[in-house]
Design brief:
- With 120 residues, this protein is an alpha+beta fold.
- It has one domain: Lipocalin.
- The chain has 2 helices and 9 strands.
- Strands 1, 2, 3, 4, 5, 6, 7, 8 and 9 form a 9-stranded antiparallel sheet that branches.
- Strand 4 and strand 5 form a beta hairpin.
- The longest helix is centred in the N-terminal third of the chain and has 13 residues.
- The protein starts with 5 loop residues before the first helix and ends in a 5-residue tail after the last strand.
Length: 120
């Protein structure tokens, strides 16, 4: 029996994980190209006042509300429309952004939903 090399297995696992986002009624996945344009150079503010900043050169920061500090990393939009962040501390995560009505919502791989505040 021939086993897959670990790198191939990890790549396959990443693809399978990206397909497991739990969508709710009314969710519309934002196409990758539209999402990349929507995020590049923008700051998204969540309802807890945390902010995600997507720099045009691929740098990413998340600033926690209050005095919580800032996490640094690099962002990219994958072909399936997920946004993956590779943090400088070695941790990484992929999230999906959807439209639900007029609202943009971040969905984590665990199924948590975080709506984005509309711009004033």
């Amino acid at each position: 029996m021939r086993l897959l090399p670990p790198l191939v297995f990890c790549a396959l696992a990443s693809v399978l994980e990206a397909e497991e986002f739990s969508l709710s009624t009314g969710d519309t996945v934002v196409p990758a190209q539209v999402l990349a344009s929507r995020l590049s150079g923008q700051i998204l503010t969540f309802y807890d006042n945390g902010t995600s900043k997507f720099f045009t050169d691929g740098l990413y920061t998340y600033t926690y509300a209050g005095q919580g500090g800032t996490a640094y990393g690099y962002w990219k939009v994958t072909a399936d429309g997920t946004v993956c962040i590779d943090y400088i501390n070695g941790w990484s995560r992929c999230d999906m952004y959807v439209r639900n009505g007029d609202r943009l919502v971040l969905i984590t791989e665990q199924g948590d939903r975080f709506p984005i505040r509309p711009k004033d």
